[in-house]
Write a structure and sequence with these properties.
By secondary structure, the protein is α+β, with helices and mostly antiparallel strands. It is built from 3 helices and 8 strands. The longest helix has 53 residues, at 2-54. GO terms for molecular function: carbohydrate binding.
Length: 177
């Protein structure tokens, strides 16, 4: 009987140690969960802020930028992989809208790669109205400049033809449905 009581006391002591250890682990996990929830909340706030900065929803379409410098084809592919295409600027209103939101050289969805001097948008429609820098488009230094960028100059943002392999960020547009 003495051994049984001793064994029970050891079992009780062991169980109390395990309970204490589990309580400590539970407290550590609760503290970690709280820290993760706070980090999640901070990241969601930061993400919403970045999305607001980089994307704008308007009657003109859902506009966003490629996150890094790419050539024209890579920029277009990035847009397409994200359900969009390079932006088409067919009105003065859209030119003003896009120009007011860029402060660097950016690709738009216009090219004459298929046929020299026959400018086409990514939807295959032809260019009717352009917003070219004076003297553009050209073939500067005999280069094969088949793609179009918006180029900030003297607080104005106008179009420039450029070699398609040069690196810019792209302006993507997804139609609002």
């Amino acid at each position: 009987m003495k051994n049984t009581v001793k064994e029970l006391n050891l079992t009780i002591s062991s169980l109390e140690d395990k309970r204490t250890s589990l309580s400590q682990k539970n407290q550590e996990l609760e503290t970690r969960l709280q820290a993760l929830n706070e980090e999640n909340q901070r990241l969601n706030t930061s993400l919403r802020s970045e999305i607001q900065k980089n994307r704008e929803l308007s009657s003109l379409g859902f506009i966003f930028m490629t996150p890094e410098l790419k050539n024209w084809t890579e920029s277009r592919q990035y847009c397409r992989n994200n359900g969009a295409d390079l932006v088409m600027i067919k009105t003065e209103e859209k030119q003003s809208f896009i120009s007011s939101r860029v402060n660097e050289r950016v690709w738009i969805g216009l090219s004459d790669a298929d046929e020299e001097w026959k400018w086409k948008w990514v939807d295959n429609s032809t260019l009717n109205q352009g917003f070219w820098i004076k003297g553009e488009p050209n073939t500067y230094l005999g280069r094969n400049e088949d793609c179009v960028e918006i180029r900030p100059m003297n607080n104005n943002k106008f179009w420039n033809d450029l070699v398609c392999s040069d690196k810019n960020r792209g302006v993507c547009e997804k139609a609002v449905e």
